[in-house]
């Protein structure tokens, strides 16, 4: 990919053509707030908090930096009054939805939003879709998705029943930026109440430590064919 | 047996033959068989005509045509007689024998089936009906001339003449012609069609590419795309074949709204026929060009009409817009270059090839060429579809063709551009219909919906209504649209309930900026339009609601009271009889109002008990003496 030069906040910056603007900004240490971007996932572009202003000479356009592929000569402003004002408004929308969520309250503060002028809710899920995307893009289990439309949209197992394709890997819970997806474990099982699933845990043949849900190990065995026999029988420490 | 056409010459010869056949028929009766008229029972009328003609052995002399929508659905069932040009409306099954007996056989008019003009006179012919007379039907004209399911009819009236002409041109020359014609998309955005085609043609060299027809038509009250696809599907198909040739596509889709069964049926028949005759399929008219079309039924949501959502839906995924700064023209359906155009856009194409870009570009304004079909609904006398050249004034559409506002009410505003368009006030009625002029006025062309409102319409309530629609139709993927539009609705609900606060209007404006700029797709991006345009032109109504807790139009139920004007009340008891909650009751005082000049003091004056009143408006409508007032 060819090297190009773009301008961010008045400074010339080197970049690779087609690279996402947010990545360029990150490299340069320019702060861009995000709520739906993750380095291991494809850009999704729904929280809209990463907007910046694309200067087109006699006019400008707001774009989301996480999914904007840059081209030679483009000019951006990441901290114009318009950017700041609109980001605050979007933050107010998100804060109204998740008014008690610490991660959201904190980002709102950074952006200068102390409270929301809209009726508040206490909704832990911000619908960034990271759980669903991790499940499909990284784990490739495709066990969960979105249900319903508009303001009724939610993350859900198929038809709110047991997520039959879930392997209990817990990626959704680890990746969730607001710690909304609860994962419980006792001596023998792991439960993800939100997807209505409970798994029996496999234990290390040597030390008896829990390794992972049996179903996850089956799933991994099918994919990783050239691992030594018995690889999954032991925990990481005993391997 | 169907003839397989191998060359343009064979097609021309067939056309000549069909034309002769058509001219040899002495008389024709064309009945509208569109969805609107079906609602008025046109199928029974059609069956009655068939029977009547058969029993009189007139089938050879009189041809019965069942066409698609004529655009005047409100007066259906409709019949158009040729060559006499006689136009009958609101036909009942019982009228059919008389129409044959008197009009067809003897040329006499049946008075009660004629359209009544403003001055009480009757119009015998369609061209005397103002609704039709002022239109300029180019795209829509053939709807009335052909059987909706007959490819022969379409060919006989000149259909598929543009196809061999285009196939003989270089693809680039076809694109050039469409560019020079100045055709812009009729589906909402008004994007220059030729330019889109060029982008698709040049994108991803060597890859497969697609053409798609957007027949999702989700705007409430709009039905021009349905009417075209139902009544003249071949014009859309011909446009698509030409477009496919121009951009180099061999596969096409018609994405049609699930609620349009007749459109699906007629389009399917049309595709089968066209395929049988070799007008789509392999080696079309011996040109070596292959192209076929598949019908796909829509996902059901309004947002499925948006280009990226539509393509996701076509791929079998959830019909949701996707966030990407790459145009579908370059990476669309299955990531291949894809050319999406609206039904009406496609239907304009054959005309441009037939008559040339120079002819076409003479119609309309500097930046908006050709005609546009509008669907005129709301508080207007003649609701229906009108096709006018771009540049016509809104006033002409509403007052000349639409006949103005019924019941002696005053015009207040017209919403153009569908649910996310804007409200245009009386003072701007001389605005020409033109993509750029409407946008400048804070509205848009959209797909051509016109909703007319009278003085009894509350503009805050209207903004609330459209915002509610858009909030419900939001896919919910991105924050500004899902959360922002919902909060706008919540504020509007409050204002209409009399719970508005100073600063609400400014807050709505502030929210609008972020929602417009930062939404993922154009649904959210245009959702603030109804609110912004009503604030711009009807700010006083917002202020009355918020500051004085008053609805000037008397429409917001929480802000109005019903009461009796004592001196007008005659004691007739009409209000008390209709009131569902016994809020309208007699008092023990004598009535003061006069019935035919005489006061009858034995009758009791009435009153309305506010606590019981549910503001259903029944008493207001029932009172013949203007004694019920709304304040
Ligand atoms: C929410 C939404 C709904 C839309 N619905 C339709 C529709 O029903 N029909 C249509 O032709 N275009 C619709 N559009 C516009 C399409 O995205 C697209 O611009 C159009 O089909 C392109 O064709 P054109 O260039 O011929 O207008 C819609 C756009 C949005 C944002
Ligand atoms: S603007 Fe609305 S409809 Fe479009 S992606 Fe965002 S939420 Fe969905
Ligand atoms: S980080 Fe760009 S839209 Fe969420
Ligand atoms: S359906 Fe008959 S006129 Fe529209």
What features would you describe in this structure?
- The complex is a heterodimer of chains A (239) and B (631).
- Chain A has six helices and eleven strands.
- Chain A has 239 residues and is an alpha+beta fold.
- Chain A has two domains: 108 residues, Ubiquitin-like (UB roll); 104 residues, Alpha-Beta Plaits, CATH 3.30.70.
- In chain A, the strands form three sheets. In chain A, strands 2-1-5-3-4 form a five-stranded mixed β-sheet, with helices on both faces. In chain A, strands 8-9-10-11 form a four-stranded antiparallel β-sheet.
- In chain A, strand 1 and strand 2 form a beta hairpin.
- With 631 residues, chain B is an alpha/beta fold.
- Chain B has five domains: 113 residues, Glutaredoxin (3-Layer(aba) Sandwich); 211 residues, NADH-ubiquinone oxidoreductase 51kDa subunit (Rossmann fold), CATH 3.40.50; 84 residues, Ubiquitin-like (UB roll); 89 residues, Up-down Bundle (de novo design (two linked rop proteins)), CATH 1.20.1440; 71 residues, Alpha-Beta Plaits (2-Layer Sandwich), CATH 3.30.70.20.
- Chain B has 24 helices and 21 strands.
- In chain B, helix 19 packs antiparallel against helix 20.
- The termini of chain B are far apart.
- The chains are: A alpha+beta (239), B alpha/beta (631).
- At the A-B interface, strand 4 and helix 2 of A face helix 18, helix 19 and helix 20 of B.
- The structure holds flavin mononucleotide, iron/sulfur cluster and FE2/S2 (inorganic) cluster (2 copies).
- Iron/sulfur cluster binds next to helix 19 and helix 21 of chain B.
């Amino acid at each position: 990919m060819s090297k190009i030069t773009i301008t961010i906040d008045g400074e010339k910056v080197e970049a690779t053509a087609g690279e996402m603007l947010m990545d360029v900004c990150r490299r340069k240490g320019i702060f861009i707030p995000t709520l739906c971007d993750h380095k291991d996932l494809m850009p999704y572009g729904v929280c809209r908090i990463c907007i910046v202003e694309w200067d087109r000479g006699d006019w400008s356009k707001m774009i989301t930096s996480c999914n904007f592929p840059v081209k030679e000569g483009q000019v951006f402003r990441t901290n114009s009054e318009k950017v700041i004002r609109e980001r605050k408004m979007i933050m107010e929308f998100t804060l109204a939805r998740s008014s008690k969520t610490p991660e959201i309250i904190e980002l709102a503060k950074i952006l200068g939003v102390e409270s929301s002028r809209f009726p508040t809710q206490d909704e832990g899920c911000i619908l960034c879709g990271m759980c669903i995307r991790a499940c499909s893009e990284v784990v490739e289990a495709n066990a969960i998705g979105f249900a319903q439309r508009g303001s009724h949209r939610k993350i859900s197992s198929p038809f709110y029943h047991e997520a039959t394709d879930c392997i209990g890997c817990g990626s959704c819970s680890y990746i969730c930026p607001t710690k909304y997806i609860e994962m419980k474990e006792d001596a023998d099982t792991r439960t993800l109440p939100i997807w209505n699933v409970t798994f029996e845990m496999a234990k290390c043949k040597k030390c008896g430590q829990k390794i992972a849900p049996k179903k996850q190990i089956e799933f991994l065995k099918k994919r990783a064919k050239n691992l030594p026999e018995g690889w999954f029988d032991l925990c990481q420490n005993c391997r | 047996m169907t003839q397989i056409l191998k060359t343009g010459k064979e097609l021309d010869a067939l056309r000549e033959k069909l034309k002769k056949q058509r001219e040899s028929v002495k008389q024709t009766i064309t009945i509208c068989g569109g969805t609107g008229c079906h609602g008025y029972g046109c199928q029974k009328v059609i069956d009655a005509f068939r029977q009547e003609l058969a029993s009189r052995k007139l089938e050879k002399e009189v041809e019965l045509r069942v066409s698609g929508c004529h655009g005047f659905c409100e007066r259906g069932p409709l019949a158009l007689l040729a060559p006499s040009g006689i136009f009958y409306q609101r036909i009942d099954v019982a009228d059919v024998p008389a129409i044959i007996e008197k009009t067809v056989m003897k040329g006499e008019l049946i008075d009660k089936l004629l359209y009544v003009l403003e001055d009480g006179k009757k119009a015998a012919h369609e061209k005397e009906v103002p609704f039709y007379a002022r239109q300029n039907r180019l795209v829509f004209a053939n709807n009335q001339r052909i059987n909706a399911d007959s490819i022969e009819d379409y060919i006989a009236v000149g259909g598929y003449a543009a196809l061999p002409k285009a196939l003989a041109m270089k693809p680039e020359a076809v694109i050039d012609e469409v560019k020079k014609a100045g055709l812009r998309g009729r589906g909402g955005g008004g994007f220059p069609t030729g330019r889109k085609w060029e982008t698709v043609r040049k994108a991803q060299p060597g890859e497969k590419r697609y053409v798609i027809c957007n027949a999702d038509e989700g705007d409430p009250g709009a039905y021009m795309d349905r009417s075209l696809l139902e009544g003249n599907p071949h014009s859309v198909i011909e446009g698509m074949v030409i477009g496919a040739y121009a951009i180099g596509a061999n596969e096409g889709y018609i994405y049609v709204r699930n609620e349009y069964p007749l459109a699906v049926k007629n389009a399917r028949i049309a595709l089968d026929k066209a395929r049988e005759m070799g007008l789509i399929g392999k080696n079309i008219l011996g040109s070596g060009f292959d192209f076929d079309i598949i019908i796909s039924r829509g996902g059901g949501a309004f947002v499925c009409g948006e280009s990226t959502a539509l393509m996701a839906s076509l791929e079998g995924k959830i019909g949701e817009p996707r966030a990407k700064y790459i145009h579908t023209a370059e990476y669309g359906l299955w990531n291949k270059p894809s050319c999406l155009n609206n039904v009406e856009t496609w239907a304009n194409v054959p005309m441009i090839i037939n008559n040339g870009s120079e002819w076409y570009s003479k119609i309309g304004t500097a930046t908006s060429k050709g005609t546009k079909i509008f669907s005129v609904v709301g508080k207007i006398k003649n609701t229906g579809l009108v096709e006018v050249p771009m540049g016509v004034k809104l006033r002409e559409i509403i007052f000349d063709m639409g006949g103005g506002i019924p019941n002696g009410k005053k015009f207040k505003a017209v919403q153009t551009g569908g649910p996310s368009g804007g409200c245009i006030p009386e003072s701007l009625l001389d605005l020409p219909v033109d993509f750029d002029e409407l946008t400048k006025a804070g509205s848009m062309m959209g797909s051509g919906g016109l909703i007319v409102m009278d003085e009894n319409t509350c503009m805050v309530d209207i903004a609330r209504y459209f915002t509610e629609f858009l909030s419900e139709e939001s896919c919910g993927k991105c924050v500004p649209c899902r959360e922002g539009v919902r909060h706008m609705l919540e504020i509007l609900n409050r204002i209409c309930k009399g719970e508005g606060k100073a600063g609400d209007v400014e807050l709505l404006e502030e929210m609008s900026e972020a929602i417009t700029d930062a939404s993922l797709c154009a649904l959210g991006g245009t959702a603030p339009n109804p609110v912004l345009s009503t604030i711009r032109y009807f700010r006083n109504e917002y202020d009355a609601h918020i500051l004085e807790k008053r609805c000037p139009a008397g429409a917001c139920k929480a802000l109005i009271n019903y009461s009796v004007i004592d001196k007008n009340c005659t004691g007739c008891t009409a209000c008390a009889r209709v009131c569902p909650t016994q809020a309208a009751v007699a008092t023990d005082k004598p009535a003061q109002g006069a019935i035919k000049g005489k006061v009858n003091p034995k009758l009791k004056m009435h009153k309305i008990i506010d606590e019981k009143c549910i503001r259903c408006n029944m008493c207001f409508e029932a009172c013949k003496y203007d004694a019920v007032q709304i304040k």
